[in-house]
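Table S5 (text form). Sequence records supplied for joint modeling of the two-component complex.
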Amino acid sequence: MTVPPPSLEALVGDDLGPGELERLRSAHELLLQAGPPPELTPALEHAPVVETGRVIPLPRRYRFTAVAAAAAVAVVVFGAGYLLGGNGGSAAALRTVEMSGAGGAAATLDVFAKDEAGNWPMALTVSGLAPLPRGKTYELWLTRDGELAEPCGTFAVAAGTTEVPLNAPYRLKDFDGWVIVRAGTKTPLLSTA
Amino acid sequence: MTPVNESSPTDGELITRIAARDQSAFEELHGRYARAVLGLALRRIGDRGRAEDATQDSFAAVWRSAATYDAARGPGAPWLYTVARNAIVDRLRRSPEPAFGDPPDLASEEAAPPEQAEASWVAWRVHRALAVLTEHERSIIELAYWSGLSQSEIAEFLRMPIGTVKTQTRKALARLADELEGELR
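The corresponding structure-token record, covering 378 residues in total, follows.
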């Protein structure tokens, strides 16, 4: 059902001087022409991180496959690691990667020793990212020359700090950075310096 | 979101600071224009997901090209509009993916009907001006214009006399008029 536009006099009364009434009428008519502004999703509430330059996403039709594959690999690798290696160890990270973004968002990625199959287990600790609606996720990507190169898993966040295990089954030397994006988008929300 | 007032930097000043790689200025400009850019992208693209991508593209373009802004040639709002419009058109060219029917006109805003360009510019101005009102002022405007509620229903919703609703609507509208008149600083 279409809502009829409100009349200016009904909104503000009829006791204004003609000059002020005309000034408000101008704003009133522009409001009616413009319509309501769109609501922002959490991912658009902060300015994007742009220091990493041009980043090109996978074609949309491949995104779900890539993300699903990365998630499946992460689940299998960490499940196997948990079962085979136990969870009581306190392996030291070989490398710790810091990422930062707008609005104070930050992440620390601890990369652990590669397994025999070539998987680099990782632990991501992230804070300052907005929790997304159900079914929406963030993704960790390796980058090369400022472009998204390989996905390293998908995750959700809660308010505050979230820790999540991830995996990179790649030759890390082949890449030059890490970024976190909202799934299905290309713009980094967090990135390495 | 910080309302623009006498002590707030103008859009042009923010763009100049962005050119010097000031992240806080970038965040502030984003706060002022995110809804306006998304609205423009939705008008041009239609699809919400791709419009959000285009919005991110637009702000990335602002960051990249801020150094090309010349305050002597005009205020910030038209420059931002041009940068955003070009980024949105670029996004359409790169990933048209029309779901049905003919692809949209990708040539340029100039090639679109003048009425469409005019409507986009009006929406841009109004959405930008709304973004710098206080939360309360914006709520009053949104309730008055787009909630579908009558004035008496709004009064009931806000638990205030209808005369107070009218007074506050008048003030919010006057603030919006101020912003629209002063936007091209």
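Note: Chain A has three helices and eight strands.
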